[in-house]
Amino acid sequence: MKYFLYWGCALEASGSNFLASLKPACKSLGMEFEEIDDWNCCGASISYVGANDLSIKVLNARNLALAETKGDYDIVAPCSSCYIQMNKVNHEIQENEQLASQVNEILAEGGLSYKGTIRVRHIMDVLFHDVGVDRIRENVVKPLNGLKVGGYVGCQSVRPYGEYDSVEKPVIQDLLLEALGIEAVSFPKKMRCCGSGIFLTEMEYCFGLVSEILADALSNGAQMVSTVCPMCAMNLENYQGRINKALGTDFDVPIVYLTQLMAVAFGLDWKKDAALDYNIIPPEGVLHASIG
Amino acid sequence: MKDGVNYNPSFTQEVFRNVDFGDEIKMCMQCGVCAASCPLSLKMDFSPRKIFSMVRAGKREEVLGSEAIMLCTSCYACQVRCPRGIPVVDVMHGLANYAVKQGYVPRKETCGFAGEFWKQIYRIGRIDEKELSRRYFFLEGFFQGLKKTLEMMDMGIVMFLHKRMKLLPEKKIKGIDSLRRMLDKAGEIGKGGGGS
């Protein structure tokens, strides 16, 4: 199982615990990754202020073209924003010949071209559909029995295409959590947006969004919240102190990446492989209580 | 002129012609599912549905000067539910891009941050979070910058201590020159204006 891994800018900084845990957890499952050489930023969800749509298409087409020259594997984009930007542009190019030739005319400035043969996929998609829950279950040596986790899906990991899971009632993250022995807690706000890329600049408006998500997960019994998006993790975890101060709440909820829980359940090193020490709200206590 | 609806079809045509995905507004039947699905619609001055209606009514100042077009979190909840298949998020982004190009500043902070975000992509091909924050904090001069830095410093320190910050400055990607040529060309050919 070989893929291109397009991890993007955030996973080298604020989302570093995602990348650090994803690599060893996926390696245990027999997945092999190749970096796209000299990749550029996908534009994320706020480039539109400075750039028109065609510029953002070109950004992503360049990465697709660079990958296409190296092999015919699918691209896995763990960051939801990278996933949606790249997947969206890929669809648009594949479905519109006129656009494809326009984009290729521009890519020619850098001696590149994109034929449209690559598939862009989310990490949850490949974990569920290519690897499968059976194989994941086989790799579990430390089942996280009794641990109650709210699988927060957010926005861009399934919307707008819903290619591998429902856009309204997604289940795949819960099924992956359950394969680790976890009790996946269902909470209605798991599809509600956390504020995404405008959180920092619209904090007062976005505090309420995160507060509602956390309160909903807690009231349904979650001990921690898992995510598969660096923006969700940042907004849900790093701002908890500020939210408590602004809204008078007392949240102290560990926010972990799905891949961190996988690494723990696979019996890998909590620091080196699960990168739990990267987390600002420590999840170790709750995990110890579960594993024993 | 008396009060009442002053339709300005020239603005409607302007949006259909110059705004990315602007002509998709033709499909809107004003059902309001977008407004009901939006996480921030209650904070917006006009819901997406109203924005679309105002485009049709030719309300140029109100649309391009609205805060709503800059408050889209890009969560696509509206887009997956729109019964007419309008890419609502893309339309809102298109309007924000066009408004900024026309000299409007819909939400100062988000507009400034997002502008710096794009400039950094154009400059190095990637995003360096700490450098982006610094440039955003200091957009309005030294003292404002110092104030914002101090306000957010606790978060920065915690992230640094937890290895959530890249220490070395991000280098330019190898193909930065050709990437810039591509983006310049896309900016010229595409709608709304773009590039650097």
Uncertain stretches of 5 or more adjacent residues of chain B:
none
User: How large a portion of the residues of chain A is in β-strands, by DSSP E?
Assistant: 5-15%
Helix content of chain A: 40-55%
Profile the largest sheet of chain B.
Answer: none
Largest interface: A-B, 66 and 71 residues
The biggest sheet of chain A, with number of strands, parallel, antiparallel or mixed sense and barrel status, is: 4 strands, parallel
Task: Please count the beta strands of chain B (DSSP E, at least 2 residues each).
Answer: 0
CATH architecture classification of the largest domain in chain B: Orthogonal Bundle
CATH class of the largest domain in chain B: Mainly Alpha
Summarize the helix and strand pattern of chain B as letters.
Answer: HHHHHHHHHH
Describe this entry's structure for a reader:
The complex is a heterodimer of chains A (292) and B (196). Chain A is of the alpha/beta class and 292 residues long. Chain A has 2 domains: 2-121, Up-down Bundle (Glutathione S-transferase Yfyf (Class Pi), Chain A, domain 2); 142-291, 3-Layer(aba) Sandwich (Rossmann fold). Chain A contains 12 helices and 8 strands. In chain A, the strands form 2 sheets. A 4-stranded parallel β-sheet of chain A has the order 2-1-3-4. In chain A, β5, α7 (172-179) and β6 (183-185) form a beta-alpha-beta unit. The radius of gyration of chain A is 19 Å and the shape is globular. By secondary structure, chain B is an all-alpha fold. Chain B folds into 2 domains: 9-101, Orthogonal Bundle (Fumarate Reductase Iron-sulfur Protein, Chain B, domain 2); 108-189, no CATH class. Chain B is built from 10 helices and no strands. In chain B, α7 (108-124) packs across α8. The radius of gyration of chain B is 19 Å and the shape is globular. The mean pLDDT of chain B is 93. At the A-B interface, α2, α4 and α8 of A face α5, α6, α7, α8 and α9 of B.
